[in-house]
Structure formats: structure tokens, C-alpha cells
């Protein structure tokens, strides 16, 4: 698991990538800072990820930033977990099928 990458949740809706990077830059070199956005509306989903150059900087940022108040919201900061693979195709919904002869009579 990469301990240089932090998950940052409960972010204010107004924050952008540059603002997130500036917020965490005081703890060390920020390699990347991304606010996750809805693919259709382009609006923030309220969370993002910050990647540091060193694990030490990430650990210090996690310890000091967790629970900090930003625009009335207490942010959540944790080491990011790897994304779990989801099965492709055919997610959810009615699949039909079944035995047509076993339908309930009305």
C-alpha cells in the first residue's frame, strides 16, 4: 500500500485542485492533488487525493489535518486504500431470464 497518498474527505464544495495542493503543501512536496468531480455535472464530489513525495510528509499531514475545520466542515484525512476492481459489464438491473413457465398466474 502506498503510504504517500492520502484520501481527503468532507471537503468544501468550493475547493479546486490548486487549493487542495496549497492546503497540504506546508507539510512537504505535493506531487499531485486532485479533487474528484462528477463526470456529468463537473461538480466536486466532496473528496480528493493528495500524493506526497515522502511517506514522512504524508504521515505528518494526516496527523495534523484530520478533523480540521474548512468552511464549516471537518475534513477527514486517511492513507488512501487501493481501489478495488469491480466486475465489468452487466452491473445491476433486471436480467430477465428465469423459467417462463413458472410465472405467477394473475
UniProtKB/TrEMBL annotation:
Residues 4-82 form the RRM domain. It comes from the Bacteria. The keyword Zinc does not apply. Residues 78-106 are annotated as: Disordered. Keywords: RNA-binding. The keyword RNA-binding applies. GO terms for molecular function: RNA binding. Residues 97-106 have a biased composition (Basic and acidic residues). This is RRM domain-containing protein. It comes from Candidatus Roizmanbacteria bacterium RIFOXYD1_FULL_38_12.
